[in-house]
Amino acid sequence: MFYKDERLALFIDGSNLYAAAKALGFDIDYKLLRQEFMRRGKLLRAFYYTALLENDEYSPIRPLVDWLHYNGFTMVTKPAKEYTDSMGRRKVKGNMDIELTVDAMELAPRVDHIVLFSGDGDFRPLVASLQRQGVRVSVVSTIRSQPPMISDELRRQADNFIELEELKDVIGRPPREAHGESRNVAYAGNH
């Protein structure tokens, strides 16, 4: 479903892709991911969206964000909002759906094919709009996790569904295991 001469853009929903890869038991090597899609077409942009905890001295995702920024990814970040739920638990909220949608709509006239790395069903109207503008849309997520990480509506709307597990040999590496690490350190990685 890829053509060598088509103009490609990647839109990566960072937390969603991380959760899907983690559910499949591997980490993503973003250098290999970028190379794979450069091979598939003319890669114009690779966007990566994530919320960051600004008040922490050190964010576990910071090394990944810095690496991506220096290695050809367009980073879109915003401060995550911290709150305490009704049970007294500390929660973090950082939805990047609007930022991703606006960027995709703006870039649509300049690309032939968008690859969305997310299984979030909220993106179904975006995919439909991009398709009406003549852009082909591939969605990368997984149905092989329990429960599946992609919404059925998004999968049906996409022109092409790419099973993340089938990319494992091309863009994956074994997860890092270390004692006492927070859950995002393996995600941040050292490239």
UniProtKB/TrEMBL annotation:
Domain NYN: 7-165
CDD domains tied to this protein: PIN_LabA (cd10911)
Listed Pfam families: NYN (PF01936)
UniProt-recorded name of the protein: NYN domain-containing protein
Top-level taxon of origin: Bacteria
Gene3D superfamilies: 5'-nuclease
